[in-house]
Amino acid sequence: MIRFIICNLCTLLILTGCWDQRQFKNVKLTLTIGYDEGEEGEIYETVSIPTVKGSEGIVEETVQVLSSDARTPLDARDKIDQMISESFNPSKVKVVLIGDELAKSDIYPLLDNFYRNPNSNLNAQLTIVEGTAKEAINFNSTGDTKISEYISGILKGASSATHAHADNMQMLWGELIEEGEDFTLPLLKVDEESDVIKFNGLGLMREDYYTGIKISPEQSTLFLLMEGNKGNVARMTRKVLDDQPTPILEYITFQVLDFDRKMKIRPEGKEVNVDMALNLDIHVTEYPHDHLVDEKIIEDLNNDLSNILTEEASEIFSITQEANSDVFSIGRMLKAYHPDVWKELDWAEGYKDVTFNPKVEVTIQNHGIIN
Amino acid sequence: MGFFRKFFQGEPLQDRKIADDKQEPKQPSTKNLSRNIDYLLNEFKYTDDLKIRVLKKGDAALLYFEAMTDQEKVQQMIFDPIEMGKADHIYDIPNSKETTNLEECIRSLLRGHAIYMEDGHERVTMFNVTSVFNRSVEEPANEKVVRGAHDGFVENLMININLVRKRIEHRDLTVKFFKVGKKTNTNVAIVYMDGIANPELVQKVKKRIQSVHTDKVQSPGFMEEFMEDSPLSPFPQMLNSERPDRIVASIMEGRVAMFTEGSPTAIVAPSTFFMFYQSPDDYNTRWYAGTFVRLIRFASFLIAVGLPAFYISVVSFHFEVIPDDLITPIKSSINEIAYPPILEALVMVVIIELIREAGIRLPSPVGQTIGIVGGLVIGDAVVRAGLVSNIMVIVVALTAIASFVVPSNELSMTLRLLTFPLIFLAGTLGFVGLIFGFLLIAVHLAKLESFGTPYFAPVAPLRIKDLKDTFVRLPIFTMKQRPKGAQPVSTTAVEEGARGWKKDEQSNQSKDK
């Protein structure tokens, strides 16, 4: 009996059969993937693959950028795999870029493989590039060695300054699938004049395609506050005065300390009214005119800023209505609180008919350490 | 009263013997001196170190093993009293013992005694002139502490018992002797507190000692293997220590300690897994520090057993879990290594064990050199040569250090051995294998028993009260009850009101106000 067991164990040790290890040293990790529109309905995939060499601290890094035409993302991956040594692995991908032309058609088919495969990194960030993704991935005149680090750094900065969401692909999944809720994706643009990639606003999505309409970087902070999101810092600069000796004196810059947003939906028959009250407590960080201890000046500034921002808010609402992108989840709230109204409405076009009544109220709470 | 009864019934009072020798053979001595000597010489196979000094012109003889006796003691105990006229005859010397049994003479000769026989007399006189060589009771090199007692057991059983008795001056401290080993006749002693230790446990230990039938018992390790419940388990089921304070603490918890002649190591039954992680240092420092150090020791268990296996499963199966910022350094370090990580790990672990083993056997200055040459030079060269990645060197070195943190050498060895199966499991199945490995270890630990005590107590079976001295070390006055793992009969260790002075002082203060 013991001999039988020992024989078995020895045989097992020799005949290990398929050993499904995936050696880390034998894979080529790609950190950035980009998709563009190819010819005749094909897609064009670009990847950047860093190869590291040398040990003991001094690490040389060479980046290989490869592109291929294919029918589907995984088909493209197979084709790229044939071009490189060892095997291609996207499980540590950091940013996924989509060219704006491709994004205007359905983006879900591009992402399906990420959600389906348990190895993929759903912590990756999804962005739209104005122009082509290939251009952005090929971009290499920055201090950061890797394009993935550069782009994810830009997005991280944008989300901490309340310009963009910090959503990763995991968090987008729900918004991608659910009816009655749309979302935005950050837009990037390769600026060839100044040789940088820059954050260029938020692209409004309608279901799962890009509408082509965007919220500009200047408006994005207010937009995110209206959505109820605030990053580490939310800073805005607005013009409050006219006819000053130099234009720089016409502006005020402030940070939002605290905010309170209330959305109320009042359906009246088939007509849907939405009241939004946004209260901002602000901290003035730049105002060369000073005299911020005077109550009247503060009162005036509060009123001016409230009016300016209220106007801007209605502008933002009309932009989203133009794009028919329900980023404020009005549809979902209707479905939840007023199911009767929801059943009667055709939400594919219904969002455009919603009446928004924004009201922004600004209160200066703090004016810095000088009087 | 037994003394008087025996006295009146006329039974002669006898010396208490170390071990019961009722069954031992008897050979009556004769009046013929040369026949007696012939018998003894024959029994000793004419060994050359049995010295026979002929006295009284051939009418008497003094026999002793030259190697076992102290010449000065012979002079002092046997000849001095006669020369100085204190005694007229050797038979009259007071500190002697008499017998007419030659077999007893053999045993006492072997113990290093001298015997005196005279022609025409049956009686034989025995003198204790054994020479004793003892080293001093130094601190054991493998169980050093920062603060606390710095003495240690030695190779002499009596000195060891002396060290224990000095620490427990109580009538309940009981010592029982046994002779084990048919040829070596090794003295084995068990020491316990009667009234704390469970009588069933004591009985169990006695029974197991008595049923050891073997030629020789060299060390407690021999006894351990004969007595432990599961000899196939990798885990030691009896704690062994050379520190009197550690052994005394175990005895006071109601455990049974066992000593063998010729070895400075005492072993304790029953032992639990967590006892191996307790060090006298924990109780000598403040309890916060004791707790912190103990937690670090438990972390070292996980590192020593699991770190190489974890690293291997990460780099050969699940590299998704490597943090983004570590990808480049790790990839660059392992990219050009020729061998798979499992082989790398085995090579490094074996190298470390080689260095360790070489360091122990060599004299200490050379041993240190080997450590430096092995650790620094080989470690560096192996990385430069591209045989092993530098991260693997870090992992294996950390593992080796962690395995030396355990206060018990036995368990440290066990941990290092357990690394290997886990490395293989991780190398074939990744995290799944690692989890299975840990699961099997946990199942085995929970199933193991030491002298009727669950080995993994007080965690499995859970006893919250005993956790006070398991992962943490709470202040001693909170440990009111002895741990249940020792199966004590009397459970109270610290009595109620052990810090009663505090209440008194507070009430005094309030009175003053």
Description:
Chain A is an alpha/beta fold. Chain A folds into 2 domains: 25-215, no CATH class; 216-371, Nutrient germinant receptor protein C, domain 3 (GMP Synthetase, Chain A, domain 3, 2-Layer Sandwich). Chain A has 12 helices and 14 strands. Chain A has helices spanning 2-14, 73-81, 100-103, 108-116, 133-138, 147-160, 169-177, 217-227, 295-323, 330-337, 339-344, 347-350; strands spanning 27-29, 32-37, 43-53, 60-70, 87-89, 95-99, 125-130, 184-191, 196-206, 209-215, 235-239, 251-268, 271-286, 355-366. Chain A has an 8-stranded mixed β-sheet with strand order 4-3-2-6-7-8-9-10. A 4-stranded mixed β-sheet of chain A has the order 11-12-13-14, with helices on both faces. Chain A has a two-stranded parallel sheet with strand order 1-5. In chain A, strand 8 and strand 9 form a beta hairpin. In chain A, helix 8 crosses helix 9. Chain A starts with a helix and ends in a 5-residue tail after the last strand. The mean pLDDT of chain A is 86. With 513 residues, chain B is an alpha+beta fold. Chain B has 3 domains: 2-127, no CATH class; 157-282, no CATH class; 299-454, no CATH class. The longest helix of chain B is centred in the middle third of the chain and has 30 residues, at 287-316. In chain B, 35% of the residues are buried. The A-B interface holds A 16, 19-25, 27, 29, 50, 52-56, 59, 61, 91-92, 94, 119, 121 and B 314-317, 319-320, 322, 324, 327-337, 340-341, 383-384, 386, 389-390, 427-428, 430.
Brief sketch in words of this structure:
Chain A has 371 residues and is α/β, with parallel strands linked by helices. Chain A is built from 12 helices and 14 strands.
Structural class of chain B: alpha+beta
DSSP summary, beta strand count of chain B: 12
| C-alpha end-to-end distance of chain B | 60 Å
Number of helices of chain A: 12
Number of domains of chain B: 3
Binned, the helix content of chain A reads 25-40%
Strand content of chain A: 25-35%
Strand order of the largest sheet of chain B: 1-2-4-5-3
Protein chain pair with the most extensive contact, residues per chain: A-B, 23 and 29 residues
